[in-house]
Write a structure and sequence with these properties.
It is built from five helices and 13 strands. The chain has about 200 residues and is an alpha/beta fold. It comes from Thalassorhabdus alkalitolerans.
């Protein structure tokens, strides 16, 4: 059994909870920093990244979230969550939590009326993943330690850096939960690795 939290300061929280639901996964809605201590993995949902950052600061989540990710526990960010995780935001300089070595561009696929849905291949996950792009950012640059898992045309939209996973679109707004199952597997593998290290030490 693994315990995965969904940061519930703002955004599509319930949809992520539903996609993560599984017999071997306990899903927690995270509204207090102390809840992070019991988690094996964490999801940053889509929403509005500037608002989310303001709430992260207001409720003193900044350092606890940084420490959670730096401890090696998996984190999955979608849309605005991807922006929170990036090292740099194009045209703005430094990012928010600066967890992943990548540069992102806000609203790269247009405004609300340019939203669209498509099927696309995502490495190691599936050839026909449902992807909903709503005011979506894109990843314009990645560091050497970041693996590109998917592109839409020439634009990077899914990337992984070790225990960190980020995508431009909203997988939680579809009935296709393979992105979430992939993340849950990352969480299980990380938990097993932590357990092995504890035994060997």
């Amino acid at each position: 059994m693994v315990k995965i939290g969904v940061l519930a300061l703002q955004g599509a929280v319930r949809e992520h909870v539903e996609c993560l639901a599984a017999p071997d996964t306990e899903v927690t809605i995270v509204k207090r920093t102390e809840q992070l201590e019991d988690l094996d993995g964490l999801v940053f949902p889509g929403g509005e990244s500037t608002t989310m950052r303001r709430l992260i600061d207001k409720y003193d989540f900044f350092e606890p979230l940084k420490k959670f990710a730096e401890s090696g526990k998996p984190v999955f960010g979608t849309c605005a969550g991807l922006i929170l995780m990036s090292k740099e935001i194009a045209g703005e300089g430094e990012g928010h939590l600066e967890l992943m070595d990548m540069v992102v561009e806000r609203n790269a696929f247009g405004r609300q009326r340019e939203s669209f849905e498509t099927l696309m291949p995502v490495k190691d996950i599936g050839e026909d993943i449902q992807a909903v792009f709503i005011r979506a950012p894109l990843i314009s640059e990645v560091g050497d330690n970041v693996e590109v898992l998917a592109k839409y045309g020439e634009e990077i939209v899914v990337a992984r850096q070790g225990h960190l996973l980020a995508c431009s679109f909203h997988p939680e707004l579809t009935t296709d939960c393979r992105m979430h199952r992939y993340f849950a597997t990352m969480v299980k593998e990380a938990k097993e690795q932590f357990a092995t290290q504890a035994i060997s030490s």
